[in-house]
Amino acid sequence: MAIWFYGCVTLDGYLAGTDHGLDWLYDTGGVEETGYAAFYEQMDVTLMGRRTFHALEQAGTQACPYPTTENYVFTHRALSRPGFQAVSGDVVEFAQGLGRDKNIWVVGGNTVLAPLLDVNRVDRLILQIAPVLLGRGIPLFTQGEDLKRFSLEAVRKYGPFAELEYWKKEG
User: Fold this and answer.
1) Cα angle, residue 155 at apex, residues 92 and 2 outer, rounded to 5°
2) 128-154 pLDDT tens trace
3) Is residue 13 predicted with pLDDT exceeding 70?
4) pLDDT at 171
5) Beta carbons within 10 angstroms of residue 114's beta carbon
6) Strand order, beta sheet including 2-10
7) Secondary structure element (H or E) that encloses residue 55, with its range
8) Is 2-168 a CATH 3.40.430.10 domain?
9) What Cα–Cα distance (Å) separates residue 48 from each residue in 11, 71, 95, 109, 152?
């Protein structure tokens, strides 16, 4: 099993605006300008929090944006959108229960990502950096204060985005 984070942040490290909005991202470019399709083909499962799921709902598409993966949303509310399953409980325990042969993509923010980082369970980070400064917003990284090291494996340019791929540093 490998746990991946793949997502875009602003130059100043924000995943979303203070209102949890992503207009800054949609106005910068689209996934067709990135390596998203090749990345997604490798994934078996997506994990996200309620706010990320809500942002997907607000994007307006009726079709499931992740049709070939098992899609789980950590929430205490029922979900009415097909293709997604509501789950609750401990993120780390849930991820471990998915099986060793799964590639798991943490979609969105720190509600799901931080607990996995805290226990050193994130194997890969693919960060796209958008040429935007928000000044304030929702930061991507809010894990505990323990030092985490990653090794830079690749740097790519996609349109206006810089993409940095990191692997968990062993040892």
Assistant:
1) 25
2) 999 999 999 999 988 777 888 899 999
3) yes
4) 59
5) 17
6) 85-87, 70-74, 45-49, 103-106, 2-10, 124-130, 161-168, 150-158
7) helix 50-58
8) yes
9) 23, 8, 11, 8, 25
The CA distance from 93 to 141, in Å, is 20
- Report the percent of the chain where pLDDT is more than 70: 94
Q: Within 10 A of 168 (CB to CB), how many other CB atoms are there?
A: 17
Residue type, 123: D
* pLDDT tens digits for range 89-113: 999 999 999 988 999 999 988 889 9
- In terms of phi and psi (left: phi > 0; alpha: psi -120 to 50; beta: otherwise), the region of 138 is beta
Q: Is 20 left (phi over 0), alpha (psi -120 to 50) or beta?
A: left
Tokens linked to 23: 């207009």
* Residue appearing with tokens 């090291």: 149
Fill in the DSSP letter of residue 98.
T
d(CA 60, CA 123): 31
Identify the bridge partners of residue 98 per DSSP, sorted by sequence position.
Answer: none
pTM of the model: 0.90
